[in-house]
Design goal:
There is one protein chain. By secondary structure, the protein is an alpha+beta fold. The protein contains two helices and twelve strands.
Length: 178
Amino acid sequence: MKSVWKVTTAAVLLAGGVWAGSLLNVTAEGAGVGSQPGTADDPVVTKSYVDQQIQKALSGGAVTTPVATATPSPSSAPTATTSPTTSSNESVIVDVKPGQTLIASAGAEFIVRAGKAVIFSQDANGVADLTDGKDLLNGVAAPTNHLLSFPRNGRGITVQEGQTLGLVVMVRGGYTLK
């Protein structure tokens, strides 16, 4: 008798769960669960759509297609290449190969994103690590993902000795790749 009671209770609970789930599904369809992306029922939009709508509103209804801009890349020639940025807030990605040195202009900021870098300085003073609040002297390893500030010309970073891969550095401000 006890096993019949358990089976009956399990069947009633299972049927109740299926019935409650079907009620929740019917009420959730109005919230956009079954709608297709890109329709009026889908509240999620992409950044490009928002940008197009802003351009449309600003230009009085005409939609302009955004033009892709080329990212400046440093020259692979062994001679020195100077690439100052036009704006102090513009960031440029620079690839530094082993044997090359990335020299900062006064006021430039670097963030080493990939690779092992070493601070390069021609004088006794170093580079300000703004993330840790330290002064990094010549020959000290530059930590990745830290904001480095270069107050004067002639200081920079280079690839650590023995590394076969180069560096990927975000640069804000002027720089020279030697």
